[in-house]
Amino acid sequence: MSDSAKQAIDAQHQEREMQRLMAEITELLVTHHGGSLSEQELDQGIDLLQAAYQLARSSHAEQRRKSGEPYFFHPLRVAHLAARNWMGFPSILAALLHDVVEDTPVTLEQVRLNFGDEVALLVNGLTKVEDLELNRGALKQETYRKQILVAIEDFRVLCLKLWDRVDNLRTIAALRPEKQVLIAEETRQIYIPLAKHLGMGRVADELEALALTVLYPRRAARYHRVQREVCRQTEAGLRKIRSEIQMECNRHQLNVMLKDHWRPFSLEGSANMTRGVSSLYSLDVLVDSTMDAYLALGVIHRLYSPITGKLRDHLSTPSQHGYQAIKTTVQCGEYRLRVQITTRKLGRFNESGVLAPGFEFRHENFAGLMRSLLEGETVFDTERLRLASASIQTYTPTGQPLILPEGSSALDFAFAIHEDLGLRAQRARINGQTRQLRTRLMDGDQVKIETLSEPAALPKWLDWAVTPRARNSIRRYLRSRVRSDSGSDPAPDHE
């Protein structure tokens, strides 16, 4: 076959793939959002979608990725990922157009005139900062700042950036190894924590697996080999367990859906993979209501022996980032099995977080975190963002739960309740025992803060606090003392 004939076949295949993706995007938009739009609004949305498709395709027509693939496939796949996760017409238009301002002659003003202010805001948030006077590192930091500032106004810009990063990591093989490593490290420092803060747990897991595969390719390959072998060896046994659970739930008139979940590659999973199915697999149980989730838990615990200390209830008390499910581990004959039970609705929340219909997104909390990160020691405080992504649950003296980042101190607890309480903190009582403010809290701790009559924060507190809220409050107080009271007696050196 001649080269021209091969090129013609490739072009036909690419055209069919573009049409397929576009058809699925349109169908998803109509399915997810058509019921909430009037016929006129829906027709207008579809017209704008076609216009964005044509503009992006023509603008990127001569561009190719490092792999040789036509560049337009990238924004098209990003739009497809966004549509699969309930994003609406403006977001999909922005996904299709997210690189035209940065990489083609199309201007942001043209996007605004043709598609409106909402789409232009999102596209602008996804466009890198350009400044000839800044070096690459400074430009990157300013781009982070720009994305976060836009995200405070509209979190969808970060969601789109996450889908952009997912596709870039899936297709990263054509880049130079050193470039791959930089992208993977940036993903772990910035985008995985952000995905967690948006409640997008499954997205965070995929980003982590993709990034770690770049950084630890041999370990990832071994993990997947072991996982495939465990899958083969346990297929019949897991089928029997699912059948037993299904039959027992049917007997109790519980409508359940059972889903296999083979866990993506992670460093923890790689370290524990010799434990077999318990570290590589979990069974997802989806039910109709919260009450049914607890009934299903009882059914499963009657069928199989629960492992002591492995039950976590995130239905009654959601995790820091909104994850809601009951987690348990049971012994099913020779298999030790992790089980996650949740409702179908909450299952969507756990996968897509803030994007899932009905998700109660704590926008003010998120915006506050983003502002505090921008006020940190660097242009974008990545270390504080990472720390804030793993959480523990603590309790006030009255039993109210308080979610804090893992590694938080009693001082962080005080500032999480109120800035004045933090500034006047003297010591803590943790589970009834007197402890210093720098004491690191454990999951389940009950904490009472003992206070002084006046604020008395100390510079060393900055070494004890990990949360942006606490650190920024301490810095503001210390600056105000330097300005207004530099000649006064120093505060008592308490702990």
From TrEMBL:
CDD domains linked to this entry: HDc
SUPFAM superfamilies (alphabetical): HD-domain/PDEase-like, Nucleotidyltransferase, TGS-like
Gene Ontology cellular-component annotations: plasma membrane
Lineage top rank: taxon: Bacteria
Pfam families: HD_4, RelA_SpoT, TGS
InterPro entries: Beta-grasp_dom_sf, HD/PDEase_dom, NT_sf, RelA_SpoT, TGS, TGS-like
Gene Ontology MF annotations: GTP diphosphokinase activity; guanosine-3',5'-bis(diphosphate) 3'-diphosphatase activity
HD/PDEase domain sequence ranges: 67-178
Boundaries of every RelA/SpoT domain copy: 262-358
GO biological process: guanosine tetraphosphate metabolic process; response to starvation
Family affiliation: Belongs to the RelA/SpoT family.
Protein name: GTP pyrophosphokinase
